[in-house]
Amino acid sequence: MKKTYNPSLMLSNTRIDKVGVEERVARFQTRSIKNESKKQGLHMVLNMIDLTTLEGKDTPGKVQQMCYKAQHLHDVHPGLPTVAAVCVYPSMVSIARKALGNSSVKIASVSTAFPSGQSTREIKLADTKFAVEQGADEIDMVISRGKFLAGEYSFVFDEIAAIKEACGKARLKVILETGELCTLDHVRMASDIAIHAGADFIKTSTGKIQPAATMQVTYTMLMAIKDYYDQTGIMIGMKPAGGISTAKLALHNLVMVKEILGNPWLSNEWFRFGASSLANDVLMQLMKSESGLYQSPDYFSID
Does the active-site annotation cover 18? Predict the structure, then answer.
């Protein structure tokens, strides 16, 4: 059945107490994590990363190198997990599919005129269908922020619903680009629209706009997921992306997810980090926990 925009079904009229959010987030950042729990958490973070390259200069060789790293994060430490997925442009999906073979690592592709979203719906649908046909397991779409900020909420809803249908069996992550939404009230409203329109995940950012995945924004989006789950019993995934480059910040995010949504969300089926540099910092922390010494960044591949 086709989804239609119905404001009465949403919680978008919820007003966000910005001071309250900041105080709650500050408490998550003061949690102490014991050494063994920290090590388990760092392994969990690695397994939740969408290793990403989204540059105009991307080449087949760069994507192949990233796919190798996705499966072999640090060759001298064979016990490490793989990342959750690699994220590339639609034109690189077939390259990633061949490089990953039968690996459990998923292939995510951005679509819908990423990162601006400034194109026609026909082109956005074609972009999505092409990525799926090339072998993408997941689609990361961007919403039309201009339409949202102009108050055309039904347009945004209908576009998400149309892209969801075009995804077929691929899971849909809806990028809000929170750095352009200006307020937490807007973040909450956009989260509710995306969830009700069919998003499997909601995602903070493209990584091209700052601020990106602040903990205040992620908290607001997690609360939208919680309220929807409490209403319907349906789980929605969360992906903070952009600006999470340290293991410490990633662990703070996991603490927040656990306390708001609970243990069922602590897997890469329901929580991801969109990152390009996070993996190396986590690897450095894990190497230090075993040897007592930091390894130079030169020991880790850039991709």
Answer: no
Q: 126, exposed or middle or buried, with CB in 10 Å at 0-12, 13-18, 19+?
A: middle
Q: What is the pairing mode between strands 237-239 and 171-175?
A: unpaired
- Active-site hit among 69, 124, 173, 203: 203
Tell me how far the alpha carbon of residue 88 is from its chain's centroid: 13
Catalytic residue among 106, 192, 239, 281: 239
pTM beyond cutoff 0.85: yes
Confidence of residue 36 (pLDDT cuts 50, 70, 90): confident
Answer yes or no: 124 catalytic. no
Dihedral of CA atoms 223, 21, 209, 68 in degrees, nearest 10, equals -60
pLDDT given at position 296: 54
Helices (H), the chain: 18-28, 35-47, 60-71, 93-100, 121-134, 145-149, 153-167, 184-197, 215-232, 247-260, 278-291
The confidence band for 301, taking pLDDT boundaries of 50, 70 and 90, is low
Q: Is 89 helix (H, G, I), strand (E, B) or coil?
A: coil
Of the residues 140, 200, 281, 303, only one is catalytic, namely 140
**pLDDT, position 276:** 77
Q: Residues, the chain, total?
A: 303
Q: Is 34 a catalytic residue?
A: no
Q: How far is CA 136 from the centre of its chain?
A: 15
Domain 7-299 has CATH 3.30.300.20: no
**pLDDT of residue 14 exceeding 80:** no
Closest C-alpha to 252, from 219, 221, 225: 219
Tally of CB atoms within 10 A around 297: 12
DSSP state of 273: E
Which stretches within 136-268 are classed as H helix?
Answer: 145-149, 153-167, 184-197, 215-232, 247-260
